[in-house]
Amino acid sequence: MDFSNKAGNNNIPLSDEVLEILESQFNKVKTLHSTDLEIIAAELGVRDNDVKMWYTNRLAAWRRSQGLSDCFGQL
Q1: What predicted TM-score, i.e. pTM, was given to this entire model?
Q2: What are the DNA-binding region positions (predicted)?
């Protein structure tokens, strides 16, 4: 399932190449420490806030696809 432009991600100005890399990283690790987000953003040359927002939206979409609440820690 392709989530790269779903869950509001199309509002974040990221290139297709960056989205592919983020999706690949998400498939390996669902949640990242803030330091890891900053490192990924720096390596990709994008704002850390954009990476954080993409990850937040992507995790919510993944949780919905699994039949879970959008918000981690809430039922």
Answers
A1: 0.74
A2: 7-66
